[in-house]
Specification:
It is built from 31 helices and 18 strands. It is of the alpha/beta class. The strands form 3 sheets. Strands 7-1-6-5-2-4-3-17-18 form a 9-stranded mixed beta sheet, with helices on both faces. Strands 10-11-9-12-13-8-14 form a 7-stranded parallel beta sheet, with helices on both faces. Strands 15-16 form a two-stranded antiparallel ribbon. Helix 4 packs parallel to helix 5, helix 14 packs across helix 29 and helix 20 packs antiparallel against helix 21. The structure holds adenosine-5'-triphosphate (ATP). It catalyses: ATP + H2O = ADP + phosphate + H(+).
Length: 852
């Protein structure tokens, strides 16, 4: 038999062996040795291996409890090689404490500071257990990792690819925002699933043949969040579908010890491993933390000033609700602070979310404005600052938010903005949690007022104005719904100042607020029950609009989701009279100009439930005059028949005399169109209005030259040119940002592309295989390695002297950049991005044209 034929036969035999679930002799031998070592050297129950003395002589003891490096652990060569490839050599504290217990199959409650390496502490035992059980692709789902958010699931999945790089296991990512039918086709063949709870339950309910009965390991990352009331029903339903006989591991920086929670998961004699329990602080040692007391009306200025004075930093800004994030992002972006801005919240579409996630990972200087969706687990490299612009709901959320910086060995800084009404109780809660905080004050020299610029922006941009209105309502509502009433007192908030700081001329009338304030007065006069009554009123509970930091319902893409808090306690489910209350609200009379703006602009669309909050009387704005809206009052013209005359649209024609046409400013004052244009131009400098006018007077003498029409035309033309220049610069900036975005999208799309974004094969196949049989085997979803046998002992290339290769049509844990599947995958996002660039350019050019 020729050498080639022999090779081919051996390869075929190996395939057959794999399909039958058998391992090579060397693997079998390794597995039995590992089992023995695990049994002999298991740490005593209840011990924390972290305190075990370091081994002087590796051969002297059978215990691996004192292992300091991954090489010293009783784990497979495949895992060791995967870890080495990813440059993981020494164990972190939580890994030293948890791995010895977890590897011998015990249930674990792991608690350690943020950024301390908890992910590997559960991924390694999970992969090892399946390896030792000789799990094959035919054995179905063997391990399940649950996480509260999609981005965290993706991140864990990427770590899993590193650990399992050389293993023959398949892994899937089940998160919302993807095609559930495509997932359903493949989900049954996955050995390890990383999921958000909502999507997993959906598959359990709807995917035929999705079998979880052979599950060996269940992991809850950010366990306290998954166990809290927001996920309660989902989690209970998932657990009901899982076998009771399994290993369960719970990890978080703020671990639960609640007996009730543990009973729900049927933990058996769990090891509680809190490695930093005795530490002076629950936050990373290299994290510097400070707080600043800021009036609500000053918050926007403080935030803007912070961003302007940290242009080279990578910063995450946390706000309470999706709508605030959207408004602050859109408004600040338009004001161009000089550092790229991005936003991340639960209302965004999944591909956009992933794009932002990767962009922020790769950026050196950038501000990410986010809700608590980014608070937990996300491992963005080199974040310099975490700014909590809105107070966190409790000390646990504080700890997770600040944990996005100072991760592993790096340092970082965190700033918390507290309102005077939040200060005392929040500081007490943080002191209880042993969080060290210094007070700092804003540097007056660096203070920059953004409010006048926001006012100018909002006066020109109706959409932004609506965003601001919604942001205001969403924030007040979120404060109202917070359970910790000693910290969050909506009645104490200076709402008018807040509205003004967002650039709004007036405050929408909010019935709930009026009632809370009314009841507050009663409370102050001694009637405590009154406030209780307010808190429990059902009418205000339809849309909390708070982004709780979890992807609770994967199908609710694009909607603001209610929080755990809303489904729990404070805002218990709406009562049977909820519908009536809603009707009552709609029947109420219009309160003020802003409410009318909402009515006119038809903002009461389905996806913005918080408009329900406004007291809007639906009426035909075309058939009756609006009394208290200066803009409408000035502009409306009633005809002889009593009907409103249709007004001719006003235009400014460059190069022609503007005649006697008038336009009106925000306050309803009449302005000549060119004067208005000049005023707008000044406003858009981003300086305070008053300052802008003054500067213009001396700089260009606009108001002097506007006496003569020709001069005014010249002025208008020069203003137009200046705007064109500005737009061109913006276009350039846009292109730059798109380039960055494209790169991020490519990464996200590559993830998507690899097996529709959900599948990975933990493979150790050869890279350059011209063996047709092998390829055929690979394409039908089975192992294609043919050389997984480690008996040939070729060191340096991983076990068995093989180099990993991507299996056809699957996203391999053994991804190689030269793999055909990647090359094909890379094409699509690139052209998609190019299209969007072209579209963006066309739009920008259209804008430029329109201006002329
Ligand atoms: N043994 C190790 N050696 C070097 N780096 C490590 C090791 N373990 C983990 N890391 C790195 O430390 C960083 C933080 O790890 P990880 O995300 O697992 O932290 P965490 O404890 O889960 O944080 P959080 O509580 O925020 O979820 C990651 O970048 C990870 O790659």
């Amino acid at each position: 038999m020729s050498g080639d034929n022999k090779k081919q036969k051996k390869s075929q035999q190996l395939h057959l062996q794999k399909r039958q679930g058998r391992r090579s002799y060397k693997e079998d031998l390794e597995i039995s040795q590992l089992e023995q070592k695990l049994k002999d050297g298991a740490p005593p129950r209840g011990s924390i291996p972290l305190t075990a003395p370091e081994r002087q002589d590796a051969g002297a003891s059978t215990s691996y409890a004192s292992a300091r490096t991954f090489d010293e652990l009783p784990i497979s060569q495949y895992t060791k090689d995967g870890l080495k490839k990813a440059k993981y050599i020494t164990l972190t504290a939580i890994q030293r404490a948890a791995l010895p217990h977890a590897l011998c199959g015990r249930d674990i409650l792991g608690a350690a500071k943020t950024g301390s390496g908890k992910t590997l502490a559960f991924l390694i035992p999970l992969v090892e257990k399946l390896y030792r059980l000789k799990w094959t692709k035919l054995d179905g789902m063997g391990a399940l990792v649950l996480t509260p958010t999609r981005e965290l699931a993706v991140q864990i999945f990427e770590q899993l690819q590193k650990v399992g790089h050389f293993h023959d296991l398949s892994a899937g990512l089940l998160i919302g925002g993807k095609n559930v039918k495509e997932e359903a086709l493949r989900v049954g063949a996955m050995n390890i699933l990383v999921c958000t709870p909502g999507r997993l339950l959906q598959h359990m309910d709807e995917t035929p043949g999705f079998d979880t009965s052979s599950l060996q390991t269940l992991v809850l990352d950010e366990a306290d969040r998954i166990l809290d009331m927001g996920f309660a029903a989902t989690l209970d339903a998932i657990v009901a579908n899982l076998p009771r006989q399994r290993q369960t591991m719970l990890f978080s920086a703020t671990q639960t010890k609640s007996v009730r929670d543990l009973a729900r998961l049927s933990l058996t004699d769990p090891e509680y491993l809190a490695v930093h329990a005795e530490a002076a602080t629950p936050t990373p040692v290299k994290l510097q933390q400070a707080y600043m007391v800021v009036d609500l009306g000053q918050k926007m200025d403080v935030l803007w000033s912070f961003i302007k004075s940290h242009l080279k930093a990578k910063t995450i800004v946390f706000l309470s609700t999706c709508k605030q994030v959207r408004f602050v992002f859109e408004a600040f972006r338009k004001l161009r602070p000089g550092v790229p801005l991005r936003c991340l919240h639960g209302g965004m579409k999944q591909p956009k979310r992933m794009g932002v996630f990767y962009e922020f990972c790769n950026a050196q200087a950038m501000v990410l404005i986010a809700t608590d969706i980014a608070a937990r687990g996300l491992d963005f490299p080199t974040v310099d600052w975490v700014v909590q612009a809105d107070c966190p709901e409790d000390s646990a959320t504080y700890i997770h938010r600040v944990g996005r910086t100072a991760r592993y060995l790096s340092s970082g800084r965190a700033l918390l903005l507290l309102l005077p009404s939040e200060r005392e109780a929040m500081l007490a809660a943080l002191a209880d949690a042993k969080v060290p905080l210094n007070q700092i004050r804003p540097n007056p020299a660096k203070q920059q007022a953004v409010t006048p610029a926001l006012q100018a922006l909002l006066s020109k941009d109706q959409e932004l104005k609506e965003f601001a209105q919604k942001a205001l309502v969403a924030y007040l509502r979120s404060v109202f719904l917070q359970p910790h009433k000693d910290v969050f007192n909506v009645a104490a908030l200076p709402v008018e100042d807040f509205a003004a700081s967002l650039g709004l001329a007036s405050v929408p009338r909010l019935r709930f607020l009026r009632r809370v304030r009314g009841k507050q007065e009663v409370v102050e006069m001694g009637g405590k029950e009154a406030l209780q009554e307010v808190v429990e009123e059902p009418q205000e509970q339809e849309d909390g609009n708070v982004d709780s930091g979890m992807d609770e319902d994967d199908e609710d893409e694009g909607k603001d989701k209610p929080t755990a808090r809303e489904t729990n306690g404070t805002a218990a489910a709406a009562t049977s009279d909820g519908t009536q209350s809603k009707k009552r609200r709609l029947d109420d009379s219009v309160a003020g100009p802003v409410a009318k703006d909402f009515a006119k602009s038809g903002v009461d669309n389905e996806d913005d439930g918080d408009d329900d909050f406004l007291v809007v009387k639906k009426r035909d704005v075309f058939s009756e005059p609006v009394e208290d809206d200066p803009q409408s009052a000035e502009g409306d013209d009633i005809g002889a028949n009593g009907k409103k005359k249709k007004k001719k649209k006003q235009k400014i024609r460059v190069g022609q005399v503007s005649g006697n046409r008038m336009v009106f400013d925000e306050e309803g004052n009449a302005l000549d169109p060119l004067e208005q244009l000049a005023a707008e131009q000044l406003g858009s400098t981003g300086e305070g209005e008053g300052e802008g006018l003054e500067a213009a007077d001396t700089r260009e003498g606009m108001y002097v030259v506007s006496e003569r029409p020709e001069d005014r035309f010249r002025l208008a033309a020069s203003l137009m040119r200046a705007r064109d220049r500005e737009d061109r610069a913006r276009l350039k900036q846009l292109r730059k940002e798109l380039k960055l975005e494209r790169k991020a999208k490519q990464r996200a799309a590559a993830l998507e592309e690899k097996g529709a974004g959900i599948v990975a094969t933990l493979g150790r196949s050869t890279v350059h295989s011209d063996n047709k049989e092998e390829e055929g085997a690979a394409s039908d979803g089975h192992d294609s390695s043919g050389s997984g046998d480690i008996s040939d002992g070729n060191g340096g290339k991983g076990p068995g002297g093989v180099v990993p290769r991507v299996e056809v049509a699957h996203m391999g844990m053994a991804i190689k950049s030269d793999a055909p599947v990647m090359a094909a995958g890379a094409k699509r996002p690139a052209s998609a991005a190019a299209m969007s660039l072209a579209e963006q350019e066309a739009l920008a050019l259209k804008l430029l044209g329109a201006r002329r």
